[in-house]
Amino acid sequence: MYGYEFFVDTTRCISCQSCIKACEECGTHRGVSMINFDYVDRRNTIATAAFVCFHCDDPTCAQVCPADAIKVGEDGIVQSALKSRCIACSNCVLACPFGIPKLVIEQELMMKCDMCYDRTSIGKKPMCATVCPSQALTYARPEDIARTRREKPVNTFLFGQERVTTKVFMMAPPGSDEIVLDVMDYMWNGGSK
Fold first, then answer.
1. What structural domains and CATH numbers belong to the chain?
2. How many angstroms separate the Cα of 76 from the Cα of each of 35, 48, 88, 117?
3. CB 167 within 8 A of CB 156
């Protein structure tokens, strides 16, 4: 769908998990959900967040693949590993700064969100975005997002000194130009944050 972008807004997730069920129905996923769903701060809140692959401009998962199984399409979509090439080594799983790829043991294959390529390539929205009642996962025109949301879409992330630019946008507070992520903020030290 020309002119449409994918937007993730973790503050809108209501834990319904509709995205997970819809993703399982996507033809390219063979019944396996590619949604990464987790609790934001399990110790202190029931808040959840659903994530899709961010489709990095320079994907680390593809860089570390020793079998050259992960390809990026002309449209910037980072595909799941090619079954004929994937050696199920998990390099991509470990290297992704967002923690997105999944090693599906039964299939001996790395799989991840491909933005429902079987749908988007023929002008349809990704499955998760069609069912998300709160629009935590949205596939829309940027101008529509700008008109209807206070938050600002950002697609630049800082992991320490590493700057990652992505195809998918994360909604951030107004005035934000990038999202800074520090793994130490998410690690527990002696049982406390």
1. 5-186 (3.30.70.20)
2. 19, 28, 23, 11
3. no
- Residue at token pair 């769908």: 1
User: Rounded to whole angstroms, how far apart are CA atoms 55 and 89?
Assistant: 20
Helix (H, G, I), strand (E, B) or coil at 186: helix
Rounded-to-integer distance, Cα 20 and Cα 189, Å = 31
Q: What's the first-to-final CA gap in the chain, in angstroms?
A: 42
pLDDT (tens place) for every residue of the chain, 193 residues total: 689 999 999 999 999 999 999 999 887 777 889 999 887 776 777 788 899 999 999 999 999 999 999 999 998 999 999 999 999 999 999 999 999 999 999 999 999 999 998 888 899 999 999 999 999 999 999 999 999 999 999 999 999 889 999 999 999 999 999 999 866 555 554 444 4
What's the CA gap between 176 and 56, in Å, rounded? 19
pTM of the model: 0.88
192's tokens: 């406390």
CA–CA dist 101, 81 (Å, integer) = 10
Helix (H) or strand (E) holding 7: strand 5-8
